[in-house]
């Protein structure tokens, strides 16, 4: 079968899937997003758009002969923290876990060696990690890698100044800039910095995310749904963020597909 630049698993016949899955390093990437409020500036589908666009760009840049394919975007996720704002949709945690288990079992049955959960919604990082462990027990021959788009990408920190780097958790400088680059027509008017009500800081030693987090609800932190400061967002910053995200994930996925890592059991 000639190499495909689209790499959409759903575009293959079952015989092509069988042949691709049997190749050394065969990998499936599953983008995850959410349908949730992103303040008055950004659309509900922001996270899904980021996951899909970065995944598409990465797969286009990889060697076309590598056996790596992608599933359609899982657009609705686990977003209970944003349910105080209209338009947010959230699946129950157990349903998301069952979804990962069910789809993962099918990927394993086809013969693929790895499933990458390529997630862009910070509120479901822990849930997908738990789902990945459950799937790994059920399918010991399938390596499962729950990844977060923004975590560990090279060079992002130097583009986002403090305090935004630590406190810009939702619809702030980074997300607004990336959307200005990818889909500028969907971005509302940027507010002035002094028009944003700052979130109340947690007590010393605690944080909204990180080492000692709390289970926060967005309406407790922000009347607009924005947690951070998007007032200095720009398409130029969004372009730089996009290039670094794509470059980092291209290197990671290329190394993964060409390797025998991580170890699995249950394969002959």
TrEMBL record:
<comment type="similarity">
    <text>Belongs to the creatininase superfamily.</text>
</comment>
<dbReference type="InterPro" id="IPR003785">
    <property type="entry name" value="Creatininase/forma_Hydrolase"/>
</dbReference>
<dbReference type="InterPro" id="IPR024087">
    <property type="entry name" value="Creatininase-like_sf"/>
</dbReference>
<keyword id="KW-0479">Metal-binding</keyword>
<keyword id="KW-0378">Hydrolase</keyword>
<protein>
    <submittedName>
        <fullName>Creatininase family protein</fullName>
    </submittedName>
</protein>
<keyword id="KW-0862">Zinc</keyword>
<dbReference type="Pfam" id="PF02633">
    <property type="entry name" value="Creatininase"/>
</dbReference>
């Amino acid at each position: 079968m000639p190499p495909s630049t689209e790499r959409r698993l759903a575009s293959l016949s079952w015989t092509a899937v069988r042949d691709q899955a049997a190749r050394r390093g065969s990998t499936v990437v599953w983008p995850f997003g959410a349908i949730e409020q992103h303040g008055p500036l950004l659309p509900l589908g922001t996270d899904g758009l980021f996951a899909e666009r970065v995944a598409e760009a990465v797969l286009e840049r990889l060697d076309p002969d590598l056996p790596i394919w992608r599933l359609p975007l899982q657009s609705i996720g686990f977003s209970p923290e944003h349910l105080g704002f209209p338009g947010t949709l959230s699946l129950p945690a157990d349903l998301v876990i069952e979804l990962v288990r069910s789809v993962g079992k099918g990927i394993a049955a086809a013969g693929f060696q790895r499933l990458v959960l390529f997630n862009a919604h910070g509120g479901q990082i822990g849930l997908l990690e738990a789902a990945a462990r459950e799937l790994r027990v059920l399918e010991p021959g399938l390596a499962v890698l729950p990844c977060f788009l923004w975590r560990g990408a090279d060079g992002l920190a130097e583009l986002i100044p403090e305090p935004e780097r630590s406190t810009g958790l939702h619809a702030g400088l980074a997300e607004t800039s990336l959307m200005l680059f990818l889909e500028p027509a969907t971005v509302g008017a940027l507010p002035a910095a002094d028009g944003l009500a700052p979130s109340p800081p947690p007590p010393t030693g605690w944080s909204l995310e990180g080492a000692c987090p709390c289970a926060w609800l967005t309406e407790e932190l922000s009347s607009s749904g924005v947690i951070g400061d998007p007032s200095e967002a720009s398409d130029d910053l969004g372009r730089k963020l996009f290039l670094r995200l794509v470059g980092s994930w291209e290197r990671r996925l290329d190394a993964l597909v060409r390797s025998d890592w991580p170890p699995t059991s249950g394969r002959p």
